[in-house]
Amino acid sequence: MSELAPATILACAQPSELVLLIEQHGARLSAPLGASALHVLATLAAPLADEEQRALINSPPVKSLLLQLGAQLSGGGEADAEGLTSILWAIGALRLADSPLLHGLLRRLLLLASHGVVRPALFLVLVQACARLQLLSGGVGAAVLAHARAQSAALSLGEMATLCRALAEAMGTAAAPLLRDVVEKRRADFETVRDRKQALHGACSLLVALAACPLDPPVPREFVSLLLAALHAHRLEPHSLELPRLAELYAAVHSLDADAAVCGALHAELAGRVQQFDAASLGATAEAMLSTPALQPVVALVRQRQMAREDQLGAEIGAANDELTLCRLMASGMLSPAQLCKGMEKLVQLVLASADPEGRVQLLVASAELQPVAGKLLLAVPHLDALQLRELVCAMATVKFHDPRLVSSVCETISSCLHSLSSSDIGKVVWAFCTLGLAQAPSYARMMRSIERSVGTFSAELLCQLANAIAPLTRSAACSRLLPKLALALSRCQPPPPFDSLLSTARALCVRVPLPEGLLRHLLGVILSEVSGEGEGPMAGSLSSAQLVDALWVFVRHVPLLAQQARSSLAQQLPPLIIRLLHLLTDLSQVPSDALSHLVLLLARITRSQPPLLQQIGVQVEERLARGGLKLAHLYCIAWGLRELHDALMPSTPVPPLVERLLAEAARRCRAEDIEQLVDALQAVSFISARRPWKLLETLIQELRTKAASLEPKQLVNSIDSIARMRLDDHALLEALEACLDRHLERGVVHEAQAAAALECFGAVQYSGRAGAIVHKLFRRLSEAPFLQPHSLASLLHGAAQLRVAPAAGTDVSFFFGLMQQSALSPDWADWGTILWSLIELDRADVAMEALQAIDAETLEGSPDTHTTCTFLWAVLALRQTSHPLFTRLVNAARQLNAMAMLPSQLCLIMECVLMLKLEAAFLNVALPSEMCTRASAVWQAHQQRPIADHTAITPQLLSVSKCLEALGVRYGLNVFNNYLIDAVIPQEVSGSANLALLLHPPNHYTTARGLVGSVQLRSRLLGKLGFSVVDIPIDMWDGLRGDEAKLHALRELLAPHIKSPENVGRIDPRQ
């Protein structure tokens, strides 16, 4: 095979091609050809990444070529020097400073140079390679400098200048002897040189060298002038220079003679080049140039232009007098990240300064000018600091600018710099995110920990902002846990918020949480002062109709809650004030439609006839119905309220035509509205706290079934929540919602809080889906969460307890408790009550005991509400933890309740608490008020004996058991009431030991782990304290027995351990 031709090497376009040629022909390459191949390889590999260059040079073919060249170039001739220089140049081009060949190669070349073998041109290449490898310090630099001084006369002007520049930039002042030699001995060369290229290259390089290595004493001014004159004489053209060369020459000339004409020309050219840069990317351009030392003069000019441009744009932002002009300016791409923030702040100022801020916001959000701003803000977010991010997200919230990608980006970025924000700043950030509808975020747990520690120090304005932003979110929203704390902080805030803000905040809060009594008292005092004409300022004695409706809404919702408190004086003060406020309502024309529908609902709630007011309501509803001013939710709420008022006050008269018209319009709108309006209507009706108007919702339910597949996760959970709140038993709708939820779970778009809320709602309506699959999918989704917030754990356990579903092994309740602890948030009163009750029901008293012991009583602020008091006290007594510090607080809280206003379910819990105190904790001598016990006992007895009244107590299974007892000849009684309704009782004289209580357990008395639920176990335990020996009979087991003999045999086995009477032992013996 013939030797490889040089043209073939030069024709390679990729490093891989050349490596392949080297592999094929390397052994036959001559030293010059091998050096050329290495030179070409370095040129081709220069654009590659460092790792790729290293892999290339360390590949076997290239390493073999290097070793081969080292052997071929072992002589001392010029050809050897030339080949070795080529290898050094290739190593320098690839910046392989750690190559094992380098130091030996360099020593060899320096030795050859000392013997005069290395030509000046090759020596220049050697110096440039060493400079590229940063080797011109120490001994190598000294040797090179000494040789350069000795051979300087043999170098051309251009070569000498290049050598001076390389050594000066690498060695600094250590290269001064060489430069002084040039200044003293080569001056005439610059005066006589005729070659333009030599003159320009030599003068420019020497100027850069003199600037890099200041001489002491300084270089004579005359020599600098000579170099500058050479540039002028040979017509230096600044526009022909590359930007790095232009910048370093300008820097050198400026440091040596700033007043020279050349310096001005170079500066003008640099400034002209900078003016051509894209104005929108000046900051990025400057940042990119910072890593190149030669471009520092350009960076300074770019920064100057950037500052001037920012000043100009800042003035334009300040001068903008309308929102759309400002949006176009922000979308132009000219503004820096900080200026974009200023632009958003200016946008907020313009909106708030308008006569109708809400209308201005709607127009702005609907305009095409605002959307392009989102892209610019998205690019700016990574460059903003914590305070700028806070200002940005607050401005976005003020103008209702909700771009999902931008909100997500801001949330992720700000979560990494929360440590830079104060608690108040974090409160503002949470307000902004909640205003923008962000119900869940990974950083919310950290934010809420900070807020909960400092909420008592927040201003009244911030407290109101937070409450108004969080209250409209669903109960699965992470920040919902802040609402009770915000309400409590508002009641203690000094000075209190302005009346308008206080009233609107109370209106929003009372839908989700009861207001503290202190806040209600303050609001009551202000309202009384206003309606009495004793207020101060422009509002004195003149509440608007909308304010009157809001005040009525707040007070009417709290009347039944206050009635549950035995010693609340507010319960007597509110009813007269409500009547007075109703009489003050004289003009409803300015009342918003939301408030109008609420007014109808509160009249239905208090069942009060106000003919003049009702007439006004009818007129307003007719007018708004005619002009389409009522939403679908308004139609249903007003129709329900009017229907309820009619049925309560005039049941014998026909239904008003207006109700039929409202329902007809609602039915028509249901078919035309999008899914969001349907969900809003369902949610609005579900909050009506009275008889559920299911029949009025037939069209709405039918449309929801049809459109359920298009529900987004948030809408889906809201729909399930509304159905659970109404206890709406519509299996077809639940199946459609289950199918939609299943699809969202598969797509991974359901948040863990939404999954927990859905599970709790399914539990409320006793719906476990097809074969219970959806429940286990929800468990699996919850187990994948990085952490669970306390209210999500409470929802999870509550739903599981209601469905009697025990989480699977590996993800049991202890696992989920661990997830809650990861959030570092503590459950509040209501959460703990739900968690403990649910654990007991799920037959996990062991975990409930650990949880109860872990509660820090000092961290539970305020007082529990009525339901929480009953549930919590029941759980503590069921766990027999009367020594717990919370026990006394719970008993005292229960003693403050008004039994006459409590719900039957709450009184039943109280009655079981009374039984436990009496039968298991009598030694404590703790008792609840006698009137409460009497009321609870009456409700309890009615509840226990309801199956007898409904004729459902004698089930087929109980009838079958009674027949078997008769066949055995055992005397018994059915449906015996002794604090509990007992299915069958065998008296003590028959058993010979104790009264036997036979309890038949349907499937819902067992968890999926086949343990009896906690409330059933408690019944057996208390019956034991009452002297009964309990015999449990699972209905599933009993129904599975075939034939009378099998049932008799099974009953003998169950009874035999309990029969001690000699005359009955043989009769009951199962061995017969």
TrEMBL record:
Q: State the organism's lineage.
A: Eukaryota, Haptista, Haptophyta, Prymnesiophyceae, Prymnesiales
Q: Which residues form the RAP domain?
A: 996-1053
Pfam families, per database record: RAP
InterPro entries on file: RAP (IPR013584)
Q: What is this protein called?
A: RAP domain-containing protein
Checking SMART domains in the record gives: RAP (SM00952)
